[in-house]
Every structure is written in structure tokens, then in C-alpha cells.
Amino acid sequence: MSVRLLSDLDADVTEAVNWYNERRDGLGDEFESLVYKTIETLPMRMTHPARDRTGHHPLRLSRFTAVLYYDTRHDEIVVAGLLVG
Hints:
- The protein is built from 2 helices and 4 strands; from the N terminus they run βααβββ.
- The chain is elongated and about 40 Å long.
- The chain has helices at residues 7-23, 27-41; strands spanning 2-5, 57-60, 66-73, 76-84.
- The protein has a 4-stranded mixed β-sheet with strand order 1-4-3-2.
- The termini are far apart.
- It is an alpha+beta fold.
- The chain is 38% helix and 29% strand.
């Protein structure tokens, strides 16, 4: 199963990385690493969280207050966005 990232995701991640790095040097880099490692694991997941009111599968990131939103379509996973809060 392939993974496709929507173009807005990079902007979401960059904004969050900058915000976390302002809090502590290097924290944003740790966050970015976790986001992309989590994305890499999506095709290997046996189950996916139920879709929420956005219509996407929400996946909370460990250690950070952030949710990755994605959709499963036929043979593809589409990562739609990231909410940090």
C-alpha cells in the first residue's frame, strides 16, 4: 500500500517544528522525526482508528499534543493533515 502526502502537510509540519523548536531547541526536530516515522508505519497497521467527524482517521502522536489525519483508499493511504494543539 502506498502513502501519499497532501501538499498542505509539509506546511503543517514545518509550522509545528518551528513552534516546538521555540519551546526547546531540538524539540521540533524530534517532533518532525516522529511524524514521518509514524507516517511510514501506516501501511503496516492492521487496524485504523474509526473515522471522526472530519471523515478522516485520526491518529494521535505519542509524546506530543498532535493528531495526524489520514484516509485509506483502495491501495493508497492519503495523509491529509496535522493538527497541533
